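Practice set, problem 2.
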Amino acid sequence: MVHFQSENGYVPEVITDVVRLWIESVTKSHGFQLGEINYFFCTDEYILQTNRQYLNHDYYTDIITFDYSLNNVISGDLIISLDTVKSNADLLNISYNTELLRVVIHGILHLCGFKDKTKEEEVKMRELEDQALNLYTTFK
């Protein structure tokens, strides 16, 4: 089950039941079942506090993924800074909704075991994100 919450009660309009179906489809395409997925949308300051408190990282980020997966059932808490999503969308000259969906699925890909620490892993992650975004267009 996929849940969406936010720091201030605002969940972006693009986040609909279609996104839930898309997340489930991407999960299954990588050989996993969907467990409990909790998205929490927040500000830069909230994600910075979380990054410091739980990961000892002193920087802003677009997403933090806490992985509680067991075997082939993915579960986790995904914290997304809407401020950073907006900044990245502006920087990349793409729509806010496209960047938000990319970040949403980025967390799922992490739960599926994909990494992005090395250059090769980062390239693969971008390919998988692009494939997932292309799949999303078939759900709309």
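Problem 2, part (b): a different protein.
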Amino acid sequence: MTENPTGRRRPAAALSRLRALPPWSLPAAGVLAGAVLGTTYGLVATPTYTATSYVVAVPKENSDPGTALGFAQAYGRVAGQLAVLGDAQVWAGVPVRTLRENVRTATSPDAPMVSVTATSSRPDVAADMANAVSRALTRHAAGAEQATRVELRQFARATEPTEPSSAPWTVTGAVG
């Protein structure tokens, strides 16, 4: 090992020491570091809970069932608007911003149904947010019922999830 005038080892000496390690040592160190970091993340990350409620568009008398499907698609897009979320915040007990960030809607191309899914670090809040948005959406739709001849009804309420929807520490450790 040669030293320069400052007393430090030369880079060439450090490289020769790295070359002396077995070829599997670098991948093994990477796997170990990934597992440790993934497990640590899984242990310290706040668990996420997900709850989903459903509303269904029902055609009224003398109305085409296809119309209900079209309005379900429209209501799925309207659910994230301020008018609906403003009412929902009162029932959910959270600000509109929280609803906007944590509630998603989805519609089916085949059925006149809208799913309202909410996520939160607390299971009761996730269920409350999903149910509040569904309730606000059905109330807003009731105002247009005479014109649309489609009634929006709650199909299934969100229930409080019993387990987190986020990955457990064992999975994050394995992925890491």
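Answer key, part (b): The domain at 49-156 is CATH 3.30.70.1130 (Alpha-Beta Plaits). The radius of gyration is 27 Å.
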